[in-house]
Amino acid sequence: MSVALIGFGLLSLDRSVLLGGAFAVAGAVSLALTYRKRYTLRVQVTGRTDPLRCFPADPQALLAELEQALAD
């Protein structure tokens, strides 16, 4: 959706530079925020309202370890 917003903003530049630029910048900001959080590990904890979040260095290795721990 962010890429579509960037595309719409770029295509709208010929009609209105200000609004087209605003749409393109909003799409770029949205894309950056989404990309930054792509490997976030969220753990829901009982008794806590918000989940714990961490950013593992190697998400595939962590996933393999979690699957092995849950299988035991």
Automatic annotation (TrEMBL):
Highest taxon, organism lineage: Archaea
Name of the protein in its database record: Uncharacterized protein
Organism: Haloarcula marismortui (strain ATCC 43049 / DSM 3752 / JCM 8966 / VKM B-1809)
